[in-house]
Amino acid sequence: MTTVSAAVLPQLVKLVFDQSGKVLDKRRSAAGAETKTGDQEARTLDDLERQVEVLRKYIVDGARLEVADRELVEAFDAVCRHVESLTGQPLDLAAGLKQSGVEVEMERADIDGSATAVKATSIASTARVAVKFNDGVVRETGEFTAVEINGPIG
User: Fold this and answer.
1) Is 37 in a helix, a strand, or coil?
2) Does pTM top 0.90 for this prediction?
3) CA-to-CA distance for 82 and 95, rounded, in angstroms?
4) Are 63 and 57 in contact (CB under 8 A)?
5) pLDDT of 9-29, one tens digit each?
6) Radius of gyration over every alpha carbon of the chain, rounded to an integer in angstroms
7) DSSP state at residue 38
């Protein structure tokens, strides 16, 4: 984690946060189906939930993400270990980062005013942006902007 660039850090933490949420949701569904978990798995799930709460403060509450933040690094590492332990598969963070991006599709749009599909200040090299404008009509007084660079993507 200490070798991660500041530009990629938010994506990386969000990716791990989202993956942990999927694992927890799946385990909660299984628990509702009267599935018995072992003591070790129960401890792992409990710690995963605690560490996800730490990540939540960064992803949901907007705390500043810094690679030097010890609490963030420890929670990130713990969540990765627990997700891999519970799923039996390594997290492919590189593949997850490659998939990050924005997709916008507008079909049968009838624009009289102004419409902007994506606004950003920059687009990171790891981000992907796709805008599709199908069967759209922009009237004489209308304006359609596919990508306007005003805030970061990626």
Assistant:
1) coil
2) no
3) 19
4) yes
5) 787 888 899 999 999 988 877
6) 20
7) -
